Amino acid sequence: MDILTQNTLAGSGGAAPPAAAPKARTTLNSDFETFLKMLTAQMKNQDPLNPVESTEFASQLAAFSTVEQQVLTNDLLAGLGDQIGLLGMGQLQGWVGMNARAEMPVFFDGDAVPLTLRTREGADLARLVVRDAAGGIVAEETVPTAGGAYLWSGRDSAGRPLPGGTYAISVDSFQGAEVLGSDPVESQGRIVEARLSEGRTALVLEGGRIIAASEVIGLSAPAGS
């Protein structure tokens, strides 16, 4: 579903009622009829010398009623979640065109890319590790152990420019020969679309990167706006 469709839904007074609820009610009605038939058969075929207590039948009815109410409650919550998701889409409309900052893959188009590095406390060496879409390491370089702002040139270990595309970049922190840990970098990307994906609001960034809206750390206006 594209942005225009989402906005049309939001502007028409809210989302359409979830289609799952009528189906759930039909299923529950069918199950309840089956339950009553089984309960009746149980009563007809019980041992007359050792009849089932009436309280047990009442307990079975109460248990089924509890399950029924729980299913209906779950359907209601799911419907509310869908409506809240559509409201979120309306709010995110203003994000399209802005730059989002998050821990995510880095899009390289030939120009140097500003990054924010996170290193581990006590590190005496930090290495930037660049991986391509297949997961292979295509570049490594030493970076400041203090972390912070860093301009990545987009070149491999031999100094040659890497092909344009999306790269996974992380920082490995060392203390002597010990690896303290590896952390993804923060980068920025222009938001080109907001969409609902599997019940969650997702953002599509330049280069085809997709992240959850909840992963955004910061927003900024594009240069020159």
From TrEMBL:
Pfam families: FlgD, FlgD_ig. Residues 110-173 form the FlgD/Vpr Ig-like domain. InterPro entries: FlgD, FlgD/Vpr_Ig-like. Residues 1-24 are annotated as: Disordered. Residues 15-24 have a biased composition (Low complexity). Keywords: Bacterial flagellum biogenesis, Cell projection, Cilium, Flagellum. It comes from the Bacteria. Belongs to the FlgD family. Required for flagellar hook formation. May act as a scaffolding protein. This is Basal-body rod modification protein FlgD. The lineage of its organism: Bacteria, Pseudomonadati, Pseudomonadota, Alphaproteobacteria, Rhodobacterales.
